Amino acid sequence: QVQLKESGGGSELPGGSLRLSCESSIDTLPSLYMAWFRQAPGKERQGVAYISPRAFFSHYADSVKGRFAISLDTTKNTLYLQMNSLKPEDTAMYYCAAGFGDTVDFEESRYSYWGQGTQVTVSA
Asked: CB neighbours (10 Å) of residue 83?
C-alpha cells in the first residue's frame, strides 16, 4: 500500500512561487509513475504534470508549461512541484498521485494512490 502526503500549499500573491512536496511511504519502484492534479472550486480535477518512472521524462498541461516544474528525489521518496509566476487561476486543491504500469498520462484511472491534497490560493 502506497501512502502519499502532500505539503507546501498556502497563499501567495500573483507572480509569486510555491513548492509543493509529496512524500511517499515506499521507495520509488522502477515502474512507479507520479503526477500532480488540481481541482478548482466548481471544476473538474485536471492533470498538471506527471513524471515517468526514474524521471526519464515529464509532461505538463499547457496552462502551466514554462511556469511549473515537476521533479523526483528518490533518496527522499519525495515528489515536488515547483510553481513559479503563479496566477489567480492556479488557485486549487493540489493532489499527488501514483500509479504502476507502462503507460503514463493524465488518465485518473491509471493512478491507484492519491494524497489528501494541499490548498493553493493565489490572490492579491
From this structure: 26
Return the bridge partners of 110, or none.
none
In DSSP terms, 121 is beta-bridged to 11
Output the average pLDDT for the chain. 93
Q: State the amino acid at position 50 in one-letter form.
A: Y
Could you give the CA distance from residue 37 to residue 96 in angstroms, rounded to a whole number?
A: 6
d(CA 25, CA 5): 8
Instruction: Tell me the mean pLDDT in the region 51-72.
Output: 94
Cell of 49: 504534470
- Of 64, 60, 80, 61, the residue nearest 19 (C-alpha): 80
- Sign, CA dihedral 17-99-78-41, equals positive
Reported as half-sphere exposure (CB side, CA atoms, 13 A), residue 72 has a value of 25
Q: What is the DSSP letter of 42?
A: T
Do the Cβ atoms of 76 and 56 come closer than 8 Å?
no
The answer on pLDDT for 27 being more than 80 is: no
Amino acid identity at 115? G
